[in-house]
Amino acid sequence: MQVDDGWSASGLPADFVDAVPNTSVIPILPDVRRAPAAPKTIVTAEEARKILSRNDSPDIPFDVAVNPYRGCEHGCVYCYARPTHSYLGYSPGLDFETRLVAKANAVEALRAEISRPGYKPSPINIGSATDAYQPIERDWRLTRGMLELMLETRHPVTIVTKNALVARDLDLLAALAEHKLVVVYMSITTLDADMARTLEPRAAAPWRRLEAVRNLTAAGVPVGVLVAPVIPFINDDAMEHILQESKAAGAHYASYTVIRLPWEVKTLFEDWLNAHFPDRAQRVLHRIEDLRNGRRNDPNFGSRMRGTGIWADLLRQRFAVATRKLGLNRHRLALDCDRFQPPASAGGSAALFPPAAAGAPVSPSPAGAKASSGVPFPSALPVAGAYGRGARQLRAMVAGQLSLFD
């Protein structure tokens, strides 16, 4: 299934036109004044020794997660995962968006971990730190490979994304949904195309995300929406509109978080504010401080996701009123952990679909097909990971993920 992200090759909406004098033809032209050439993305393959990460954070509704990629091509300026790139020797700025790492053996590593004796299944979240459906997933297909494994083993899974590419895997998601094994959360920060292009330049356009919600819901896949993050004086006024349009598209669940500025993200966000919204930059920062007990960031459990004080209370009230009126969050989906079947050994996985589908064309991987992901192991040495204190800090940073619920 071919999925467009909603933007033209120039980075502008597909219906953007630039008038040409003295001609009856109005071609679609890239506006180089607003859409400079995007930096080249470099992807390095890595063999992961371990793929599952665990956390015991009280404000995160899952305790097991998997991230097939390091770094994220979406380029969201507010991304809390940016500091994790520092532990790889890369910058949390442009490197985080353009120097990516793909865990080429993600499917095999996941199979090995859930095959261990005594393994007890609980919903695995895919995309908790970096988006598992970022643009490079079109070729690497690691997320699809993991979903195939989840279906094979009847393992419950949750997905968080802001890319319409998730609809490519509608066949797997619908099959998982039949057994109450999946829920997809679409992150929608704004419905304003200009704002989205500035805030999260290479994520799917807002209308494409809503279309994905509609397609997933029509196929019977449970869908929720995350208004995340809420940024004062930038997108906070859009909360009710996002919830309304998401409900109209078929979403059943909703949540939100307030912007967090850990470590280097603080400086990056401040620079972005001064560049794009100099007229309100100080107002935004002061309001964030109001939400964070006078600080730009609050790492404390219980308050880091939604803030404290009168402005945080106002956001809670607005969200509660809107979800009640729209009928969101009327019930919580309980994924089924009792259907789990230990996986077959690597290379001996059971068929997921009828034999007729076995000959269906498969999109080529960057260097040829292999296993579920379609990605071979690299011949070059993998990127070195973080060890010792750095590894502990990295795990702690990654554990500070989006809160899907209260």
UniProtKB/TrEMBL annotation:
NCBIfam families: rSAM_PA0069. Keywords: Iron, Iron-sulfur, Metal-binding. SMART domains: Elp3 (SM00729). This is Elp3/MiaA/NifB-like radical SAM core domain-containing protein. Pfam families: Radical_SAM. GO terms for molecular function: catalytic activity; iron-sulfur cluster binding; metal ion binding. Residues 62-290 form the Elp3/MiaA/NifB-like radical SAM core domain. It comes from the Bacteria. The keyword Transmembrane does not apply.
